[in-house]
Each structure stands twice: as structure tokens, then as C-alpha cells.
Amino acid sequence: MPAILHLNLHRDPFERIAAGTKRIEYREYTPYWRRRIENREYDVIQFRNGYATKAPVMLVEHRGYRIQGKEREKEFAIRLGRILKIKRWRK
Fold this sequence. Notes:
Distance between the termini: 29 Å
Largest sheet: 5 strands, mixed
Strand order of the largest sheet: 1-3-4-5-2
Number of strands: 5
CATH architecture: Roll
CATH class: Mainly Beta
Order of helices and strands: EHEHEEE
């Protein structure tokens, strides 16, 4: 079973990832995101567009991450690979 990082997105970033124009997803460098990202190995990222029961869902290859910025402006830059599956999404 693949290790999955679950992330929720608003419509615009979800749409840009689905279209292939957004190749990096950013998250703040906070204790919450450090617990979920640092020192963990993920195979795929499951993006969900909202919280509805039948919200669009997309599986994307996880290609690693890097930490960028300085001090209070640090953030995770999560590299996205190819799209493996999209459910309940109209282009």
C-alpha cells in the first residue's frame, strides 16, 4: 500500500495542478506541517478540492520536498510528479 500525503486545496490550485501548470505545492514551515512532512517518505499525494463527500480528488506522484526561505518566511516546497488519477473532475 502506498504512503499517501493528504492535502486539501481550493479550486484554483487544484485546477492548475490538474492542468499540469502547477508543479510545486507550498506549505508553511509550522510545527503542524513539520510533523506531517519532515522525516517521512510518501509515494503519492492525494489532493482533495474541498470537504464535500463527493469532492474532486486527484492522486499525484510525490517527488520529494525542499525547505526554502529564511527564518519566519520558511516554507515547504513539495515537488509534484505526474497525475495518476482524477475522480469527479470536469475539465
